[in-house]
Queue: 4 jobs
Job 1
Amino acid sequence: MSKYNEFKNLSVLYAEDDTDLREITTKTLQLVVGKVFAVSDGEEALAIYEKNRIDIVILDIYMASISGIDVAKTIRQSNDKIPIVIVSGSIATEDLLEACKLNLIEYIHKPIEFNALIKVLYLAVDRLNAHGMLIAKINDSVSYDYFAKGFVYPDGQKAALTKNEINAMELLLSNRSQVVTYETFSNVLEEEMSDGALKNLILRIRKKMHDDTNLRNLAKIGYSLI
């Protein structure tokens, strides 16, 4: 599956005290990721981090109240795997040495260029996949775990999927909000599937999802995950 398609499953915490730069970068992030929590200082960043599922943290190094370095240090005390990016117009040698100890995925200059942003998102997806941390929320009742290859429910319970169910589910997720035709399913599943066989496959997926309201059928065309 294309990493670019995975971006829309990501939740990003972005902290920047420059109002104009924060607004511009936030709008850019919103074009490619699923959710952006944009804040103006380190204290608010930590508050958001504690109360929400965050996949990537992007921090301005110099902010009022708590610096980006100190925010990263606090996060690292409980999470040594989440991708963290430090952003700055300039950085002192001492701060650079501190940043190097934090297992960052990247240090980038501001203003953040689009290509630099996309690069860190690619790196973040690689890190998340490597640690089995990439979870795609389908709705409030069920998510898909790319590492475990199954559904995850709010109570922590999980449902395993068969090979064909996994391939079909990841095909739907990679083409979210688009129609996946019957022919495409057959190509990806590497076998000719009758209409009945495909319907049975989708039915099994629906049952394991528990809440299948996001999975729509377009008669005689295909299926769409919205």
Job 2
Amino acid sequence: MNEILKFDNVKYFYQTKDDEIFALDNISFNVLEKEFVSIVGPSGCGKTTILSLIAGLLKPSSGEVILDGSNKIDRKKIGYMFQRDMLFEWRSVWKNITLGLELQKGKLDEKLALAEELLKKYNLYNFKNKKPRSLSGGMRQRVALIRTLVLEPKLLLLDEPFSALDYQTRLTLCDDVYEIIKSEKKTAILVTHDISEAISMSDKIIVLTSRPARVKDEIRLNLKGETPLRKREDSSFSGCFEKIWRELTNEEKSENS
């Protein structure tokens, strides 16, 4: 598989009113095309900073972020899914999904056809003309994901997209989002505090240290099961969970000592 993203010895500092904060220290990793990669680490270690660097919202203090072979980030190649679904309540589901297309120029017939296809494929077509308030939390996030997919990004960034949901909905939506991303053959990076979520959804997990973040471990996974929920039943799941939990717990102890 081709490499779609590379972090090459990336450091990042940011300035506060009183001090300069060292956020990332020589971060290096790569993501291959169609991989699902999760990033976990202690709170405040810089996970969202990494997503912002990938999206071109921030620039490295040193080192390079290379997306699709270029260190000049093309934001059109990035799709972003946030903690909140960011749907506009006064627009219909269809109008929310096609919002990004309204801002583009040129022939949009193919992308509008893709939007309709995705709504049908993922059981949302009957809600096409409904307002978001008539949808469940899980359905709203599926709409948000489809809105991102119609723009045909090369890379999806998922910033804790399930954290605002109750546990049962969260498990179901993990399966839904995983199915959509794999079915559409997309590459994705998930930032999460939930170790189980990371293990069940990922091909690879990047474990970060406390700030300034470094890559402490890279764990490649090959759990059996067609869905994240089924992968939780794999015999190696608990061992992997304990390994990551210990690494993160040790980081927190080191930070507080």
Job 3
Amino acid sequence: MRPRGASCPLSVIIPTRDRAGVLAGVLKALLTQARDVGGEVVVIDDGSGDHTPGLLTRLARSDTALRWIRQTASGPAAARNRGMEVASGRIVFFTGDDMYPAPGLLEGHVRAHAVASRSAVLGHVAWDPAMRTSPLMRMMAPNGPLFNFAKLRRSRCRLHRFFYTANLSMRAEDLGSERFHEGFEGAAFEDAELGVRLERAGIRLVYRPDLLVSHRHALSARAMTRRLSALRTGRKLLSALHPELAPGLRGRAADLALEVFVRTWVPLEWLLHLGPSVPEDWTNDDI
């Protein structure tokens, strides 16, 4: 057991709220990998009302690699900041409660930082094959508005645009005192805003498509409209903090067209039975 205060190679930081069914499987896989690299998993329960606290209590009793904190519901930005306060890893790995790691994921991130200096290492995110995805989900990611790895491959890898905290790691010393802006109450552009500041500080992005997580989160068309609304709110704050990033006329028109399309798709998805589905043991309130 590592002495309190001692450093370790890597800390996994996961904010969670009301996703115990999915979180259980994700944690078991991550804890196995964390032990293999001598690391830890830090979970921040962001005001869950389900059995997440009981799950974390049971797992922590049997696995010393797991540490967890409970906070009142404050959003993922505040939760990640709380996690970084207690994390002891020389590398900090950000992921979500619905991101299932492929074998060797954490070891791959550790190895990547052995050769990548002053960098954020970004892995790939794909829909989990265990669930049935919808046509709309496949349009939105992994090469669409939610995650756009095709655009990343074509671009010059601007950090803030692709600072996806679903599968991303950094050296703690490179993060320094930078933290997520807690004015972002939802999971929308809070990671991009931190990416803006890190990019200005000289941090570059290294994309590693071989480092994979499977996204265990089915989104119906109705849930997608809520997601787009959250993104609109997050973008508004991002633009207020960094006016040079405010979308122009073309960008605003594209955002509006996407919202109209998704709203139009809501009844069609229901009528044509094209919605997603997930295994029964997953917690997912977005279907």
Job 4
Amino acid sequence: MEQKSIFSVISPIMVGPSSSHTAGAVRLGLMAKNIYNNDFAKVKFILYNSFATTGFGHGTDKGLLAGVLGYGVDDISIKNIFSIVNNVEYSYEYMQDISRHPNSVDIIIDDKMTISGDSIGAGEIRINNINGFATDIDGSYDTLLLMYKDKPGMISMVSDIIQKRRVNIASLHCGRNSKGGTASMYLALDVPIGDDVVEIVKQIDDVFFVTNIRKLK
């Protein structure tokens, strides 16, 4: 039997009128913040389809910005986020694309990382692309994400580091743009790992990006 989260049974406790357009937007922003996991000075949001046409009235623009700044779905500051933020440059674009989910967004941080995701209803979200690599991250697991130069043995090296900490890997996904080119890997974990594990993975030759994505509350 498929397990459902509490968000799929009842709407989340939130600020705003819509679980898809407001709470989902905040959670997409929070996931982008967790993935980038660094200070930033600029963020651009490209909203698609229903997010673009009806999101303004539901506070989607406010929710996305509040999320990347670290505010939760129940924080009343979301309503006034534009008057609160003063150290981050932000902008919005609005598009229609029938190939994208009705509630879809690209979040571009510091012109370095593009994180694409969908708000799929009842506050639930899915990150489906990071810098051109397909993903399926919904925030329900702590997740180790890394990008590296494609070469033999990388999967076994990373999984061995995690398993030595007696942490179970719930799922593992990897992809590459070409043989010997840039590759990505993300591992959903049953329990959180410490920053020491991230530092060890960073020391592997040809790994150029590692982040520990904390699961959403």
